[in-house]
């Protein structure tokens, strides 16, 4: 093997190890969030990832940078829950599929989103992640319920669309789960009841 090929292979291996270490640190932060530690120290993250504190700082400038990276990972995971819903299905079926999809997403990501919410006022990137998810969620609702929304007058359409979005946000789900104390099935039924009244089936 030529020396340039050896050098390339060594560099590729180094980059791969670096990427694995970086991911391990991000996953360590996310696992601590899932356990309820919403503001873990860098030392705790390093211990969970099995690396030194120095290694954490080699990969991330500060805890904010680490949290932002975890937010990007959360965004990727959130999108995995957004599976196609048949737009030609009846309204009750579309509503059930959407609510079920959102419920699964929110249950999976609630711990890390609770941590992100603590940092949200101080992090433009976390706010951008939040706003991007809200925008994508609104677009999904507009596509999925286009026949029903298009049948409404302009002012009413806007109000109903906004109400649909509010009913399907994580903030609403979190309120149902933590403030009202509903289990996932009951929270899902509450959201479905709300949406069904916003878009009654004819």
Describe this structure in words.
The chain has 202 residues and is an all-alpha fold. It folds into 2 domains: 3-60, Arc Repressor Mutant, subunit A, CATH 1.10.10.60; 71-198. It contains 10 helices and no strands. The protein has helices at 3-34, 42-49, 53-59, 63-80, 91-119, 124-144, 146-150, 154-167, 170-179, 184-198. Helix 1 (3-34) packs across helix 4, helix 6 (124-144) crosses helix 8 and helix 8 runs antiparallel to helix 10 (184-198). It is elongated, with a radius of gyration of 21 Å. The mean pLDDT is 88.
> Mean of the pLDDT scores?
88
Largest sheet: none
Proportion in β-strands = under 5%
Rg over alpha carbons: 21 Å
What's the total count of β strands? Answer: 0
Number of helices: 10
Find the structural class using helix and strand composition: mainly alpha
Principal-axes geometry comes out as elongated
> Roughly what percent helix?
over 70%
Short description:
The protein has ten helices and no strands.
